[in-house]
Amino acid sequence: MTQNPEAGSNFAFAFLFLSSEQQAALRAVYAFCRRVDDIVDSGEFPPEEAAKQLDFWVEEIGRLYANQCTHPLSARLRPHVLHYRLPQQAFLDVIGGVRTDLRKTRYETFAELEEYLHGVAGAVGLLCVEIFGYRQTSPEDIRAFAIAMGNAVQLTNILRDIGTDLERGRIYLPLEDFKEAGYTVEQFIRRQHTPEFVRLMGKQAERAKGFYRQARNLLHPDDRAAMVSAEVMATVYEEILDRIKAEHYRVFFQRVGLSFWRKLTLALRAWCRAHGIY
Questions:
Q1: 49: Cβ–Cβ under 8 A, 6 or more apart, which residues?
Q2: Which of 88, 137, 179, 260 shows the greatest Cβ crowding within 10 Å of its Cβ?
Q3: Does the pLDDT of residue 119 top 60, yes or no?
Q4: CA atoms within 13 A on the CB side of 127
């Protein structure tokens, strides 16, 4: 991913139907997420230094909400935090999620993984829904919507990026699911594509599908137009998930993606669906 989401990532298509003010806010949030993620994933810092860098951002978020910013990025966030009333805890949860990658490379259960998903995806969703706006969905349901959508998209990312994550020594699929499928971590590390691996991946795909359905069911129909950017993301990533499944989860040596024009088509389809046209 790049600092400018319009430069090519799937995130870019969420911008198509936003006002200029919403776009500026989302760019600032994106830049923050990119900054803290790069501290861990860029390889620029050893773990001890990366932890210190993340500590700085925990403190800087506190300064941001006290109007005492010391970093240009937090100063950039400040007007959007005020205008959209972005929750401080969500920024801290993003940092916490990223920090997990410094100390954890395996997850015994899905409950453990879900805590990680909240930090790296659900918390981002909680920021985004405030920028997108909503009126009819209850605060409890909008929070559940953001978390479910974040889980769905991030699980799709995990399935798509298995090869890349394995190169970094990370296995995000729950170990309890390995056992249930009759597939071993040793086979996974050797990138062995077996019927048991397909069974393991199928369970994760169904889990992601469940989160997509849950998110859509939580949103009040009158808020679908406002949340069209979230639906764009969901539509694009759900198609990626479907293609991963159609290719029998051959993800060890390839990364499933969509063409620009296919993403654009899906974005327009999502807009039509959100406005009751499709």
A1: none
A2: 137
A3: yes
A4: 26
Residues 6 or more apart whose Cβ sits within 8 Å of residue 117: 97, 150, 151, 154, 155
Q: Which amino acid is at 253?
A: F
CA dist 246 and 273 (Å) reads: 24
Q: How far apart are CA 228 and CA 198, in angstroms?
A: 33
Are residues 129 and 95 in contact, defined by beta-carbon separation less than 8 angstroms? no
Amino acid at 198: V
Identify the CA nearest to 37 among candidates 157, 181, 135, 131. 157
Statement: residue 199 has pLDDT above 80:
yes
> How confident is the model over 160-195, as pLDDT tens digits?
999 999 999 999 999 999 999 999 999 999 999 999
Distance CA 18, CA 222 (A): 17
Q: Tell me the C-alpha distance between 68 and 84, whole Å.
A: 19
Of 197, 107, 110, 99, nearest to 151 (Cα)? 110
pLDDT attached to residue 237: 96
Q: Which residue has the tokens 């056992």?
A: 179
Name the pTM for this structure: 0.92
CA pair distance 101, 157, nearest whole angstrom: 15
The residue with tokens 């296919």 is: 262
Give the span between the Cα atoms of 136 and 223, in whole angstroms.
6
User: For position 56, what pLDDT does the model report?
Assistant: 98
3-state secondary structure 36-59: HHHHHHCCCCCHHHHHHHHHHHHH
pLDDT at residue 2, rounded to an integer: 32
Domains of the chain, each with CATH number or no CATH: 11-274 (1.10.600.10)
- Between helix 123-132 and helix 72-84 the angle, nearest 10°, is 60
